[in-house]
Design brief:
Layout (H helix, E strand, L loop, with lengths): L1 E12 L5 H4 L3 E11 L16 H14 L5 H14 L5 E8 L8 E8 L1
Antiparallel strand pairs: 1-2, 2-3, 3-4
Helix pairs in contact: 2-3
């Protein structure tokens, strides 16, 4: 299966287990991989043949801005559901990186969902 990848989209999100943590937006990096057939994309100018990258980024930003969450796992699942509900992919992988543990580069979760 072909893939479209958006790597490390930077967003600020009210996320964390405690109210204090959710009270200040935290920097997250979000990577999505959309699995779909891209064979027609190179042969036509049709919007239906490809996925607009900015539309996917807008979906991610919209989901992040909807409400505070306690867990990055919940956020990743909601991003995957939103992308799949728009029929933009047959499968989607979402990775969310959070910078919350001292002396570590980041903590990341990865999920994969299919239609």
């Amino acid at each position: 299966m072909d893939k479209i990848v958006i790597q490390n989209l930077e967003v600020d999100a009210p996320i964390g287990l405690t109210e204090t943590e959710r009270g200040r937006p935290q920097r997250l990096l979000i990577t999505v991989e959309l699995e779909r057939d891209l064979a027609e994309a190179g042969r036509t100018d049709s919007e239906a043949a490809t996925t607009r990258y900015d539309a996917v980024a807008d979906i991610i930003r919209t989901v992040v801005a909807e409400r505070p969450r306690k867990l990055v796992e919940a956020l990743a699942g909601e991003i995957a559901s939103a992308i799949l509900s728009q029929n933009l992919a047959l499968a989607v992988s979402v990775e969310v990186k959070k910078f919350s543990i001292p002396r570590s580069e980041y903590v990341a979760i990865q999920i994969r969902r299919t239609r």
